[in-house]
Amino acid sequence: MADSSKPRIGIIGGKGRMGRWFHRLFMDTGHDVLISDIDTEISPLDIAKRCEVVILALPMEVFPKVVKEVAPLIPKTSFLTDLCSLKEKQVEVMLSNSYCEVCGTHPLFGPGEESLKGRRVALCAARGQRWYSWWKKFLEDNGALVAEFTPSQHDRTMAWVQALNHFILLCLGKSLEEDGIDFGHVLKLATPSFERQLNIVARLCLQDPELYATIQLGNPYTSTAIETFTKHAQKLKQILEEKDRVGFIQIFKEVQKLGPSLLRHCKAKKQ
Predict the structure, then answer these.
(1) Does residue 105 contact residue 121 with C-beta atoms inside 8 Å?
(2) 153-270 belongs to which CATH class?
């Protein structure tokens, strides 16, 4: 195996937004980097054969097709990972079509970030340990906060972190649009927490709707998360319509009981 401290990196989909971001990161850290995209002379097959580390920065819609073409050509001594927002199917298709070491990677940030410092990255170990250890160390050495999950743990959690969160943001945005309320008035009266929500809704203008649609529609756990959320939303709506003060206070106190556990986890994360 080549020296794993400075392997040659190949990024398939290297001209996409996240592909360009990681290309810059690897160049800044002194790596030899090759990129392949739809208009490059270097092909995905070239990347597979010439690079010790192969990173797939691809839309999830084309991911399986490209993996089936490329992964069998990656040497057993090399490393394959991806940057997809979902992991169960993605890790499975990488494993079933390759012989090399495999890991699922999910950068929990967008290409607008300046560096890895303080940014979260989820890793799903799949096959092999040597390259996985190198990859984890590389991310951590550059400031990333790495969390390790199985693919199913990752996708189930992301149904809440991403899919439900996006669902709430879209509903909030459409509700504000339909009401026609003056945004200036809203911001003058906004609490800090609501202003943060509005800023997140505003930042949707910078995001890729195709990616968000895939995250919503592609995660097998999304429906459960949204069904659970809407069940409690309907119950709370009924309580408010009936002006049931006792019922509202009961729900509020039930949610309050989550506080100590959430605060404990938040404190542990900062340490």
Answers:
(1) yes
(2) mainly alpha
